[in-house]
């Protein structure tokens, strides 16, 4: 059985969905949408959180086990909290 080691591995592995009703079938075109709402945190902000934290770690602006401070209660906050919980950061 295939499984993920942690929830962060599911981020970005969202499906492409064909939008059939948006364009005419006569146009012979393929229109796809990336279903980012199927990320574990429910939005594209999951990708943003991973990118921001990994860049901060690379630049030395954040240390392993450090504290992440974000003034939001929205999708970015949810994504940062999820990442922090998995990686051992305190998120406030």
Write structural notes for this entry.
- By secondary structure, the protein is an alpha+beta fold.
- The chain has a single domain (7-91), classed as Rossmann fold, CATH 3.40.50.
- Helices cover 30% and strands 11% of the residues.
- It contains 2 helices and 4 strands.
- It has helices at 45-59, 75-87, and strands at residues 16-18, 32-34, 67-68, 90-91.
- It has a two-stranded antiparallel ribbon with strand order 1-2. The chain has a two-stranded parallel ribbon with strand order 3-4.
- Helix 2 (75-87) links the parallel strand 3 and strand 4 (90-91).
- The longest helix has 15 residues, at 45-59.
- The model has no long low-confidence stretch (mean pLDDT 93).
Structural class: alpha+beta
- Helix percentage range: 25-40%
Number of domains: 1
Number of strands: 4
Which class in CATH terms? Alpha Beta
What is the mean pLDDT?
93
N- to C-terminal separation? Answer: 36 Å
Strand order of the largest sheet: 1-2
Overall shape: elongated
Q: Order of SSEs, N→C?
A: EEHEHE
What is the architecture at the second tier of CATH? Answer: 3-Layer(aba) Sandwich
What is the CATH topology? Rossmann fold
Spans of at least 5 consecutive residues whose pLDDT stays below 50 are none
Task: Characterize the largest beta sheet: strand count, sense, and whether it forms a barrel.
Answer: 2 strands, antiparallel
Indicate the radius of gyration in whole angstroms. 17 Å
Strand portion: 5-15%
| Tally of helical runs | 2
């Amino acid at each position: 059985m295939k499984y993920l080691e942690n929830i962060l591995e599911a981020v970005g592995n969202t499906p492409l969905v064909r939008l059939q009703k948006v364009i005419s079938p006569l146009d012979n075109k393929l229109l796809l949408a990336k279903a980012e709402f199927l990320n574990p945190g429910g939005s594209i902000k999951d990708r943003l959180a991973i990118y921001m934290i990994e860049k901060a770690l690379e630049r030395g602006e954040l240390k392993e086990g450090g504290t992440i401070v974000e003034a939001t209660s929205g999708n970015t906050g949810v994504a940062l909290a999820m990442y922090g919980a998995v990686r051992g950061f305190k998120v406030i």
